[in-house]
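FORM 7B: Structural annotation worksheet

SECTION A. Query
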Amino acid sequence: MALTDEAIDKIKAMILDGELAPGSRLPKEEILAGQLGLSRNSLREAVRALTAMRILITRQGDGTYVSSLEPHLLLESLSFAADVSQGRTALQLLQVRRLLEPQATGLAAAVLTPEDLQELRDILDRSRAATTVEEFVAHDIAFHLRIVEAVGNPVLSMLLRVLSTRTQRVRIVRGSRTRHALDNAHQDHEQILGALQSRDALLAASAATVHIAAVEQWLAASLNDDPLRAIDD
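SECTION B. Predicted structure
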């Protein structure tokens, strides 16, 4: 095992054992290095890696702390992986999204307030007025995220953000026949909103499934036609 990996494992063990609680400050570098039997260089590398994972946070001039360790915070570090996903990896992310988001949409049907539904209506109106793919995607993300947030599970919200990031969505829309893709998306969104307004959980989940599956099917077909071309792969 590399020395840095060993250092990471030792710090993680301290967190798991309760020696370092969420929000607590790490001992000074020389003290922690001696306590763990590590060189200061190995410890620094481990701290950098754990900071990138959002397990640790560094406060300028104040030291390094254990983060809150909330799952939705830790999931943020996975967003880059979704951003750069290509080909079959992007397809696999969409498949997981299709397993999760329709269920969340169905749950939201029972809890969205009239104000929430009006906000969703406003988002779709702005979406139709979008003049660029980037602008449309921003509204698309806002629409789906607002629905999922109504469920009240921040882990689910962050996980679905990770599974379909802004960068990934822009690439998919641009890779398809853009006008056709946008028209279909607008129609799908209207069907989802209509089901939510009717408080029909099953219909809302079904509409969301159809919407996500359409993108998934397009990407799968693109891979079969030209696996080296599909969304930049």
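SECTION C. Observations
The longest helix spans residues 201-225. The chain has twelve helices and two strands.

SECTION D. Sign-off
Analyst initials: ____
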